[in-house]
């Protein structure tokens, strides 16, 4: 794929995530896809899940079911950039939402998408984990 095709694929995938349509979302991932976030991040801890999701079905379940359990309302994404080089796409964004406990959530993210055969094979997610913990669990 060209860099432009890779960028477009990842942009289409992000649009599909908001639909919560499992079949539409699944179509963007390889069967053996992986999504890696920092160990101990607040979302994984609060949901009792892993920071390392393995397999398309696990990732799709998170995006269509678990994400909504954590971020219950007012989810808004502000994309600052989609940067592509061949089969690698980097996405910078800010996410805002209302958490299940009523707290406001506002954090910056960087995602590195690695594509294989025209599909997302691996996602590496980076965020301010300390800030996330404060918003989810308070200052304690």
UniProtKB/TrEMBL annotation:
Question: Domain SnoaL-like: where?
Answer: 10-122
| One Pfam family in the UniProt entry | SnoaL_2
Q: What residues form the membrane-spanning segments?
A: none
Q: Which InterPro entries match?
A: NTF2-like_dom_sf (IPR032710), SnoaL-like (IPR037401)
The name this protein carries in UniProt is Nuclear transport factor 2 family protein
What organism does this protein naturally occur in?
Nonomuraea rhodomycinica
């Amino acid at each position: 794929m060209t860099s432009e095709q890779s960028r477009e694929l990842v942009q289409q995938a992000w649009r599909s995530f908001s639909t919560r349509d499992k079949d539409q979302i699944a179509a963007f991932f390889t069967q053996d896809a992986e999504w890696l976030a920092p160990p101990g991040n607040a979302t994984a801890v609060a949901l009792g899940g892993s920071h390392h999701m393995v397999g398309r079905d696990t990732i799709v379940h998170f995006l269509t079911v678990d994400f909504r359990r954590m971020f219950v309302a007012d989810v808004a994404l502000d994309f600052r950039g989609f940067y592509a080089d061949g089969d690698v796409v980097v996405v910078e964004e800010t996410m805002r939402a209302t958490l299940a406990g009523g707290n406001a959530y506002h954090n910056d993210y960087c995602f590195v998408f690695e594509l294989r055969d025209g599909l997302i094979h691996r996602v590496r997610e980076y965020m301010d984990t300390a800030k996330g913990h404060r918003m989810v669990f308070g200052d304690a």
